[in-house]
Amino acid sequence: MAGIPEHLLKRAQEARDKAAGIAPAADGATASENVLVKVAENKPVANAPTASAPPPPPDPSYVVAANSRKKIPFWAMATLSLLPLWAFLYVLAIQPQEKIVEGPLAVGAGVYGSCAGCHGANGAGGAGRVLYQGEVLKTFPKIEDMLSFVYIGSQQYVSAGMKIYGNPDREGGAHALLSYNGNPMPQQGEKYGGGLTEAEILGVVCHERYELSGADPESEEWKAEYELWCSPESEIFAGLETGAVNFDNLAETYAAMPNAPAHVGTDPRPSGK
């Protein structure tokens, strides 16, 4: 069989290259070579390294610390929102409860303002005797003696020829009349021109004994006296307020009561008589 001329093969290859968009080789290379070159140019090289972006800079230390810090639990904010309320309730809890004062002590606290000029706002004394820190209780172990002295004043004792008042065996010595700064104890009872009723005198004496001088109404020593004379339920105080009794007759009026009161009277007399 006769062979195909070379020039015909070349012409057919050029036609195919033209149809495939392959330019003819300028240097006389064959069409096959051109095809191989074209394929080689278009084929990616296996395992060729690809260009990559540079790594980002490391985070600052404070960002790292913030990201690694333990997160606040979801319930913590609700708990924190209650802190102001808790603080308010805590302050209320630690504040001392206001003492409710009634009866003779309430009356006496109001009356004592007229006594504070001589005896001091807290009973520390001044022109008049010291009343606080148990001093009143040493001078007048019995409330009846103190009531009488406050009611009629020291001048009535002097006029009666008496030298001392209160407990003659007082710790630290008995109190002599008119010996403290030379100032007398003014009479407070209405009978002698004073401005206080007998109920008010009982009230201020209770205030001086239990609030200023520190007698404990719950103690064995003072409980009976407090309940009889100075408690809000005191029948004696109620009787003096209404005028049903007075210092001269209350001992007889309440003689049948437990721990019946001793005579008070409105005349000078030795302590405890």
Strands, helices and their partners?
Layout (H helix, E strand, L loop, with lengths): L5 H15 L10 H12 L18 H8 L7 H6 L1 H12 L8 H9 L4 H4 L15 H5 L3 H10 L1 H6 L4 E2 L9 E2 L21 H15 L10 H8 L4 H8 L7 H4 L20
Antiparallel strand pairs: 1-2
Helix pairs in contact: 6-11, 9-11, 11-13
Structural class: mainly alpha
Strand content: under 5%
Can you tell me the overall shape? Answer: rod-shaped
In the CATH hierarchy, the architecture of one domain is: Orthogonal Bundle
Radius of gyration, whole Å: 56 Å
Q: Report the helical percentage.
A: 40-55%
Q: Enumerate the strands of the largest sheet in spatial order, edge to edge or round the barrel.
A: 1-2
Provide the CATH top-level class of one domain. Answer: Mainly Alpha
Task: List segments where confidence is low: pLDDT < 50 over at least 5 consecutive residues.
Answer: 27-32, 34-40
The biggest sheet, with number of strands, parallel, antiparallel or mixed sense and barrel status, is: 2 strands, antiparallel
